[in-house]
Amino acid sequence: MTTLLWGVLPYVTFALLVAGLVWRHRYDRFGWTTRSSQVYESRLLNIASPAFHYGILFVLVGHLVGLFVPASWTDSLGVSEHTYHLFSLYGGTAAGALTVAGIVLLIYRRRTNAPVFRATTANDKLMYVVLLGAIVLGMVAKLTHVSGDGYDYRQSIAPWARSLFTLQPDLERMAGVPVLYQIHAVVGMALIALVPYTRLVHMFSAPVQYLFRPYLVYRSRDPEQLGPRPERRGWEKAGS
């Protein structure tokens, strides 16, 4: 089971992610959208959507730093393990709470607004369940191990995650990981595998090209030139 969960499942997840992105890009480009329902209701959406997006952005950054920035790097910057733990605990909990609040409001909006509910697909429902489960499990795992410096996942889960890129997964690192962290990791991989097949695919559509496109030049018109254009030489008007 250890080999299946930590040696095989991550690569299956990656394969499903890449295959799904390629398939959507080739055969479902018009479906590569958020399928926004703002036209049906915007008051709650204007609150829930920013809360969710800002929260999930901080959650994502926190996971990237925690998993792929070695502890030796933060130590060299003068950040002690206790300081990192406190920042991870309070910052991560705040980001998770903001994300959960956004998701709950989005679900409430979909359930109580008839047109929005009719536009909700089975994929949407599955996405909300897995996404909410991943966030809540991560918060519970973190808050369950708060004594002292908490559980130091940077000495177990993080090295295992980095070892995946070498195609030689360090399975022994996951042997003593608390069960809640293991469940959180499995649900997280399920969420990653689902991304291309849900509206979450739009996260890969960041408009990076806008950073490099030329400026659009707008010129104001001379007020004295407003009105009908003067006639130009050419065909005569009909009836003249």
Automatic annotation (TrEMBL):
The keyword Transmembrane helix applies. Keywords: Membrane, Transmembrane, Transmembrane helix. InterPro entries: Heme-iron_electron_transfer, NarG-like_domain, Nitrate_red_gam. Residues 3-221 form the NarG-like domain. The chain crosses the membrane at residues 6-23, 44-69, 89-108, 128-146, 179-197. The keyword Membrane applies. Pfam families: Nitrate_red_gam. This is Respiratory nitrate reductase subunit gamma. The gene is narI_2.
